[in-house]
Amino acid sequence: MILMNGILVFILLSGGMSDLREPCPSPDGETVVFCFRGDIWEAPLTGGTMRCLVPGESIETSPSYSPDGERLAFTSDRTGGGDVYVMDGTGSQSTRLTFHAGEDRVLCWNSSADSIYFLSSREGGNSWVYSVSASGGTPRPVAGVEIQNACILPGGLAIERGFTPWWRKHYTGSASRNIWIGSGETWDKLIDSELDEKWPMYSAITGEILFVMEDSSGRNAVWSMVRGGEPIQRTSFTEGDITYPSISSTGGIVVFEYEGGLYSMNVPGWSVSLINIDSNTDYPFPMQYGETVGYSTDCFDVDSSGIQMAVVGTGDLFAGRISDDSLEDMIEIYSGSSRARDPVWSPDGKTIAFTLEHEGIIDLVLANAELQDSILLDSAFPEIHILSTSSDVAVRPVWSPDGSRISYLDGPGRLHVIDERTEQDITLCGISEIIHHSWSPDGMWLAFSVPVLAHREEIFIVSSRGGEPFNISRHPNDDFQPFWPEDGRRILYASRTDDGNYLIKQVWLTREDWDSDDEEREALLDDNLITVEIELDGLQRRTETLCTVKGYYDFYGASPDGRIIAFPAWDSSDRMDLWTVDWKGESLTRLTWSGESPEHIHVTRDEEIYYIAIGGIVRSASVNGAGGGVFGWRMPVWRSIPLVQAQKFDEAWRLLRDNFYDSDMHQVDWDAMRSKYRERAVSSIISEDFNDVVRRMLGELSASHLGISGSWYFDSSPRSGSVGIIPDYDWNGNGIRVDSVIPYSPADLDGSLLLPGDIIISIQGIPVGADDNLYRALLQRSGRETGFHVLRNNEAFDIDIEPVSIWRIEDLLYDEWIERNRREVARLTDGRVGYLHIPSMNNRCVDDFLIDLFAEGMNRDGMIIDIRDNRGGSTHDEIIRELGRPAYMFSRDRHGNISFEPLGVWRKPLVLLINERCYSDAEIFPEGWKELGLGPVVGEETYGAVIGTSDVYLVDGTSFRIPATGWYTLTGDNLENTGVEPDIHVQEQPADVGLNIDRQLEAAAETIMGLI
Amino acid sequence: MKPEVDLWERYGPLFSIEEKLVFPPDRRELQFYCEIRKRHPGSCMEIGAGDGRLAGVLGNDSLTIGLEPSAAMFKLWTPEDREKIRCVRGLGQQLPLLESSLDFILFPYNGIHCILDRDDRITLLLEVARVLHPGGRFFAETCHRFDDREDEENAERYHYAKDGFSLRLTETVTHDREKGIISFDMKYSGSPVPAGTLSIVLELALISAGELLRDIREAGLNIVSIWGDYDFSPWDKRYSPRLLVLAERSDT
C-alpha cells in the first residue's frame, strides 16, 4: 500500500518486521500468506523471503486459502468499505465477488472449495454469515446469527458471538465473546467461561475446536477442546498476546500473530516455531513525503490590529497577512515532528506564543514573528524560544494585556503565570481542572472557570500574583468561558442549562456601574479603567443575561471592547450557525444560515468575525452581515512517517495518562505500556497498522469508551443502492425471486410496486440471479430511476424504481421492527399495553420518546420501554425526570375530569427491557430506573461500559477517545465493568433474531400483565 | 520542515556538547576561518551556523548573519555570540535575503552533507548565486572521505567522563550507495540522557569532489581556489582529508 499525498521519496524496506498481520497457512503447510502494510504477501512457512501477492494503494485484509490451495480469497477496500475478492494461485488476477455497499469481510472457504463464507450486514440481518460462489453470483445467508467470526465444522459451524472489541483484555460480562456450536435453530455454548473466547478453528486431525482465550496470567493463548470436554492450553507465551490465528484446511498447522511477528504451531504436536521472514525485497515504501497543507486548521489567532493571522495546519504553525479572501505572505513559524497548537499573538503583534507537544511534554514557546532587517525576506523562520515553565505540560496560553506575562494551564489544569522575560513561573491557586481564563485589562486579575458542582463550571477571579480565588457566578447553570473586556468594568461569560439553553451573561463589577442606565453605561464603556475595581458583595445580583438561544457547551468570541459577542447557536432544525448580540442584549442577529457549526470564534476590534467552520476552514463574517469569506492558504511541508507516528503515539499515550478517569489507570503500569508498544507503533507505516498497535495498548486498560480511528480520507467508490426487497434465497430458477418487500421502501411505493413472488430478471438490462450478482446491477443506481424487467405470474413487465442507499433501508428495517414489536405486545396483552423503543440517548430520541410515551400509552394500562441495542448518549436524566416525577396532587372539575400535578405525570405500570448491547448512557438510565423503583427490568445484564468520554484529534486528524469521568451508584459501585442486572433474566439465543423470536419481549409482556 | 533538518532539534544539543567537551578544539580550523574572513571583510552569511561556534571568528564591523534552521541550535548561542552575529532562522535552499545583498557566503564544516537530496543542494547553490553581489564569494567545505569509511556495528565511539559528567556514544555505520547516503545510528547514554539511551539516526550525503564542483559551476559560480586542508595546502584526491572550495559569482 503506497498511497500518500504527493510521494516524493522512496526508500527500501528496512528491517523491523513488526507489522505482519492476519496470517493464513496454505493447505499443504508449505507457505503462509499474511498482510503487511495493507498488502497481501506470501512466504515459506519455514521462513524465508517474502513475496508480494496483492500490491496496490488499497488495504487488503483477511486472506484465506481455498482448501485445494489453488485460490486465495481476501477482503479489499479498493471499491469501498470492504468487498470479497478471489485470486488464482499465480497471483496474476483478482476478481471482485461482492458489490453490496456495506462492509463485507472474508471468513473462510466452504469445504468443497467452491464458495467463500463472509461476514456482512445487509437486508437479511446484521453481521450474518453469507456465502458467495467463487465464480460470482448473488450471495445468500448461511446462518441467521449475529457473529464476529466463524469456522466450519462437520455438520455445522463454530461461531464467535459477542460485542467486545477484539483488542480489549480481561473483560467479563454479558457482552463477552463466546463460541457457540450448531447450525440452523440449534446452538450451544462450547465452554462456560466468563472470559472472551475468540477466533474459533477446527482441526480435522484431532477433531478439536481451537480458539484463543486468556490464560491465568491474563495473556491470550491458544486452547483446544473436543465438544463436551475440557479446554487444554496449547501455548504459554509470557510477554504478550496471540491474535488472529488461522488453521490450515487440513487442520495440521496453526499460524498466528504474536508481538508483531508470525508463528506456526503444528497439530497435534503443539510445538511452536517463529516464522523468520526475510524482508530482503525491492518493494519500496515511502518513509518521507512532501505535502501541501492548507485551508483546514484546528486553531488560529488574529493579532490585535486585525492584520495578521497565525494558523495551525496538521501540527505546523504559519503566519500571514489577512487579505480579502486569503492569507498572503505566509511564513513558517514552526514545522517539524512536534505538534504546534494554541497560537496567540502578543498585544504588540510581534510575538506568537504557542504550545509544542512532543514525547508526552507540552512546551510553551515564543516565536518572534517580526522581520526587522531590510535585506531579510519572509522565508526566514522566526526565532523560537522555549519558556522554562514549571510544568511538563503547558496549554492554552493567554498574554497579559501589557505583554509582559503569559498565563497558561498545566497538566492537572492549574492556572500559572510566567514572566516572559525572567521566566519566573507562579501557580496562582490550588484549584485544578480549570478550563478557560482571561486577564483583567489592568493585569491585576485573572478570571477563570472550573467545574465545581456535578461537572458544572463556575466563574472565579484571582489575583494575577496568586491568592485566594472568589466565586462570582454561584449559579446552578454551567457557567464558563469568562472574558474581561478592556473597559474593566464587567466580565462576560457563557452559561448553559440542562434543557439546552445557551446564555450570554455579563456581571458588572461595581454597584455604581450596575446602577447606571444604558446611556451612562455607553459612556462608561469608552472610559477604560486604569485600575479595575471589584466590589465582591452582591456580584451575583449584578449579573444580567444578554441573550438566550439554543446551544450546548460551545465557546463564544468577543470584541476586545466587549461590545459584540459572537457565538454558535442552534435553530429549530438543529443547524448550528453563527449569531451575534451586542453588550446591551439587543440586536440578536443570525449571521450564517448554512449550518456552519462555528468554532474558535474571534472578534476583532473592527468587529470582523473569524471562525473555523465545518471542515476546518477559517471563514469570516461581518457584524453588519456584509461580505464574509474563506481564508485559503497553502504551505509546503515535509513529513517523516516514523516521526508522525511517534508524535501520534505520544499524544495518545499522554492524553490517557493525563485524562483517564481512573488515575490509577486500572492498575496498569502505563509507563511500561508506552515502552512496550511505542516502537511497534512508530514502525507502522500505514494508519491501519498504527491504529492496530495503539488499540492493543488501549486493550491493556480493560476499559470501555477507548478507541482510535482514521485518519479519514474521502471514499468516492461507487456504491450499490437498494430497492428494499428480501430475496427468496431458496429460489433455484432464473432471476431473483422476491420473498418480501420492506414497508415504505422504493419497491413498496405506488407506481414502483413489487410483490412477493415477483421475479426480477434484469436491472437496467443487466441480468440478475443466482449467478449474476443483484448488487452489481444496482451499483451507482441510488437516487436514479432504474429499469427493472420483472416476471409476475409468468407475465413479463417493465417497471422503473428509484433505489435508495442501504442506510435508508436500515432505517426502514428499524421502523418495521418497531411496528412488529408493537403488534406483538398488543397481541400478548390484548391491546392493554403500549410499547416504545429508545434507540439512542440523544435529544431527537428524547423528543420521540415523549411523543411515543403519550401517543402509545394514553389509552393503555401500561407501557413497555425497550432500550435494547441502545448505544448511549447523554440524555438519561431527561427521560428519568419524565418518568420519575411523583404525583403530589390532582384537580377535578364539575364533570369529574381529573388532572394530576405535575401535568402529564406518568402513573401507570412500566417495564424496562435491557440487553447486553445497552451501552454507556443506556446503562446509567436503567441503573437510575432501578434506584428510583420505576418498575421491573427484564432482559439481559447490560454491557458494563460507563465512562463519560470525549473525542479529540491527533496531529494528523486521527480520532481518539478519552474516557474521563467515572459513573457510580449511590452505594459507590463503579458502573464501568459492572453491568446493570435485570430483575427478570431472559437470555436471547443466537438464532432468535433470524427466526423472529423475541423471548425477552414476551417475558416483558407477561411481567407487565402481572402488574395491571 | 524536512526530517533531516528536524533531526537537529533533538541532536543539536548533544552535538554541541560533543564539540565543546568531548572533542578538543581544533585551532587550525578556527585559524583557517579567521583567515578566510579577513580576506572577505564585507557583509557575510554563514549557512548552518549551528551553536555559534564561528561567531567569534566571523563577526566584524560588517553585517554578519548566522543562518540556521534549528531552533534548538539557536538556543545554544550565548548573548555574546548574538552580539557578534545576527541570528536568522532559515533554510539554505530558500535563503531569506534579497537578491545581490551579500559579499560573502560560507557553508563551513560538513553542513552541506546534511542536505541529503542533490536537487536540494543545487537549489541552495542557486540561492547562493542569487543572494551574492556580482563578484561576491562563496566558500564550501566537504568531506569526501565519508565514502571510504567502513561499515561498523555498535562500535563505541567514545566514553567521556569528567567532573561527574559522562557521555557515551556507540555507533552503527552503514552506507546506502544507491541513494548516496552514509548513516550513523547513534546511541547516547550518560548525564544528558537521564532516561537511559537516546537513539538518533544521522544521515549524511556522500558528495564527490567532481559532483560538488560541477554543481557550483552550473549554479553560475566560478571556482577560484581549491584547498585540501585548513593549512591552505593544495587538494589531492588521495590524501587530502577535506575539500575546501572558494567560488565567485561570475556575472560581474
Q: Biggest interface, which chains?
A: A-B, 28 and 27 residues
Main sheet attributes: strand count, strand direction, barrel closure of chain B: 7 strands, mixed
What fold name goes in the CATH topology slot of the domain at 17-278 in chain A? Neuraminidase
Rg result of chain A: 32 Å
Gyration radius of chain B, in Å: 18 Å
Number of domains of chain B: 2
Determine the CATH superfamily of the largest domain in chain B.
Vaccinia Virus protein VP39
Strand content of chain B: 25-35%
In helices, the fraction of residues of chain A equals: 10-25%
Q: Termini distance of chain B?
A: 35 Å
* Percent range for β-strand residues of chain A: 35-45%
Going across the biggest sheet of chain B, name each strand in turn. Answer: 3-2-1-4-5-11-10
CATH topology of the largest domain in chain B: Rossmann fold
Give the number of DSSP strands of chain A: 73
Distance between the termini of chain A: 63 Å
CATH architecture assignment name of the domain at 17-278 in chain A: 6 Propeller
Judged by helices, strands and strand pairing, the structural class of chain B is alpha/beta
Summarize model confidence as the mean pLDDT of chain B.
89
Overall SS class of chain A = mainly beta
| Poorly predicted segments of chain A | 1-16
Q: CATH homologous superfamily name of the domain at 17-278 in chain A?
A: Tricorn protease N-terminal domain
Structure in words:
The complex is a heterodimer of chains A (about 1000) and B (about 250). Chain A is mostly beta strands and about 1000 residues long. Among the domains of chain A are: about 15-280, Neuraminidase (6 Propeller), CATH 2.120.10.60; about 295-425, 6 Propeller (Neuraminidase), CATH 2.120.10; about 640-710, Transcription Regulator spoIIAA (2-Layer Sandwich); about 745-805, Roll (Pdz3 Domain); about 830-945 and about 980-1010, 2-enoyl-CoA Hydratase, Chain A, domain 1. Chain A contains 11 helices and 73 strands. In chain A, the strands form 19 sheets. In chain A, strands 59, 60, 61, 62, 63 and 64 form a 6-stranded antiparallel β-sheet that branches. The longest helix of chain A has 23 residues, at about 805-830. Chain A is globular and about 90 Å long. The relative contact order of chain A is 0.08. Residues about 1-15 of chain A have low confidence and may be disordered. Chain B has helices spanning about 5-20, 25-40, 55-60, 70-75, 80-85, 120-130, 210-220, and strands at about 45, 65, 85-90, 100-105, 130-140, 150-160, 165-175, 180-190, 195-205, 220-225, 245-250. The mean pLDDT of chain B is about 90. Chain B contains 7 helices and 11 strands. In chain B, the strands form 2 sheets. Chain B has a 7-stranded mixed β-sheet with strand order 3-2-1-4-5-11-10. Chain B has a 4-stranded antiparallel β-sheet with strand order 6-7-8-9, with helices on one face. Chain B has 2 domains: about 5-145 and about 205-250, 3-Layer(aba) Sandwich (Rossmann fold), CATH 3.40.50.150; about 145-205. Chain B is an alpha/beta fold and about 250 residues long.
